Every structure is written in C-alpha cells, then in structure tokens.
Amino acid sequence: MKGRIYTKSQLTILIIIGILIFSMILFLSYLLLFKTEKRLVRQSIESKQLNLGITSIKEFVNKCIEDTASKALELIGKQGGYIYKSETGFITDPNEMGADYIDYLGNKVSYGMKRPNSDVANLYFWRPPRYPWDKFPYTDNTYTTLELNKGYYGQNVLPDLLGSNHSILSQIEHYINNNLKFCLNFDYFENYRITYTNLTTSAIIGDNSLIINARIPIDISKITGEETTKMEKFSVPIKVRLKLIYNLAKTIVEGESNSLSFDSSKVIFDVMEISLVRNVFEKDYILSINDVKSNIYGKHFTFQSGIQNRYPMLHYIVEQNLPTLVLGDKITFDTASSLKIIRGGQIIFNQEVPYTAYDPDGDILSYSYNPELPYIIGPQDIPPFNNKFLLTIKVNDGLLEDYQDITFQTS
After folding, report:
1. Across residues 161-184, what is the average pLDDT?
2. Most distant CA pair in the chain, distance
C-alpha cells in the first residue's frame, strides 16, 4: 500500500498547526509555572508576615510581663515589702497608722522595725524603767563596763525576701499571676486569631535582676487560616537589684535594733543612696534606699520602710555611791555632769557619765525631775518624819520617756 503523499500546501498547514500546538504547550507550561511561582511567592510573603506577627506578639507578651512585674516591684518598694489585698495582693490591708503603717506620700508604708513589745528571757526588757536592761548601760555590778554595741533596742519586722508564704517573692509571683491577664489583650493584632490558657509565672531573685519566667500556651493563626504556630515559654529580666537592696535594708534595721553606736547614715554600699526622713508620723520615720543601678518606668528604684520611734534610755545612776543627805544640801542635775550634790558651796558628789541619756533614734531629749531641781533638803526631808528622800529623774524624746527613781538616805 502506498503512503499518503501531501502536497506542499498541506505540509505548510501541518507545520503551522504544529507550531501552534507547541506554542500552546509552551504558553500553558508558562502559565502553570507562573501560577506556581506566584503561589510560592504569596506563601513566602504570608509566612514572613506570620513570622513578623509572631515576633511582634512575643515582644508584646514580654512587655506585658515586664510592665506587670514592674508594677509589683513599685508597690513592694513604696510599701516596705507588701502588696495589699486592695491591690490584688494577699496581704491584709493595714488599719491603724502608727501601729500598722505610716502614711508617707500617699503610700501605706509598713514598718521594718518596731520598738520591742516583749521581754527576752531575763536579759532584756521592753518597759521602762528596766528597758533595755537593768542598770543600763552597765553590764555587771562593778559599774565599770559600758555596753553600747549590743542590746535589744528594736525588733526587725521586715517581711522575708524568700521562703515564707508571705515573702516578697511570693507576693510578686501572686501579683503577676493575678494581673498579667489584664495586659494580655491581643485585639491589637487584627489579622490574627490568638488564644491562650493556663497562665502560670514564677520569679527568680538574683543579685542584679529579677527574672520572671512565664508559661503561657499561646496558639496563633492567621484569620485566613493558612498557617498556625504556637509559643509557650517566656523569660523576662527586670533590672532591679532587689536582693542587694533588701539585704542592705535588713543590715540597717538589724544594726539599729542591736547597737546604739550604729549609724545608718554612714553605711556605704555601692551607689545606693540611704536617707532617713524624720518625724513622718509623730516620731516615726522612713528609711529610704534609692538604687541608681535599678530602674523601673525610667526611674531609679526606691525601697522605703517605716522605723517606729523607740524609748530613750537614762544612764543608770549608782545608788550605792550616793552620799547621805543632810539639812541644806542642794541637789542639781545637768546633762554635762549628771547628778551633783552641793554642801556648803562645795560639790560633795558628782557622778560624771559619758551621756546622761541615750536615744536610739537620735531625737533631742528633755529632762524633768520630781521634785523639781535644783532642790534644797529641808526639815521635812529628815528625821523624825522619814529617813529617805526620793528623787525621780525622767528623760523624754517628745513622745516616749524613761525614768529612774533614786533613793537617798537622810539624817
């Protein structure tokens, strides 16, 4: 059978048809490739947008943690280590100013130190005239040794930093757990669907910062639903040297509580600024520690704590050394040389002491006497009416006082 023979015109038509088919194949291939490339580009852009969104969301969450922790620290610093129930803390709000807190610059500042309110064995006493111990500041019956570097002049009532249920760390964690949810409002991210559950946080107090670790299982997806992602763990450092600041406050409070020679204004620690704000409430004052290396909300972090006014203390006058008084003797008392007895113009007794009285708060003291001095022994003070003369010496800081009853023999 013979093959078909095409004419020249038929061949031309076949070639043209072949070219058209080949062109169509090329066009369709290009179109398919273009759509694929366009889809890949779109997916890449969406992926980048999602990644950018995730970065923004993570930064947003970190900022919420930082802001909430900073608010907790601000309350802790202003109120002496406490966040009260009215502020979503778990510490009962204080009721009585002067007993539970000091009102300072609108803040209820708790006491870090209070005056003693109970005896310690048979060594230290909280009520005058035995406060702080019998025959203060002598340490034995020889009346030759003075002790000013130890004692019981106040009680440290600062909250614990760590460990206890009411510790500062526990309060910070509680506050963040209760309040972080109010910050985590994701409505700003309009192109995303964001949900989270089971928010928990914990804190670590280091020397140079407070680190907040948070577990927040967050699901993130585009509203169009193409891609989803998750994030859960967050760790945010807060540049506040809370541990060092607290330890400094504790050192000052314990120093003030245990020693009359301790001077908190002379304590030097790094770049922390220590100040005492006097007479904030009656004779109570504020210990303020400002750390220029700790910052929240663009300001230096300050920790302040109340110091309750404490009793002044008379220097014990040794009765066994007192002379027997006779008619006409003159008794005087002054802060330069303590007690004087003058007879016939001559000083027959002069008990000199380093100080007449001491005040652990550095208050200016005043003195009073019963009977008022100077006093001249008259007939009513000698036999046959009695053979003793009682003199009461009082020292007062403007609010609290100490006293000693001194008994003289008369003849």
Report:
1. 95
2. 175
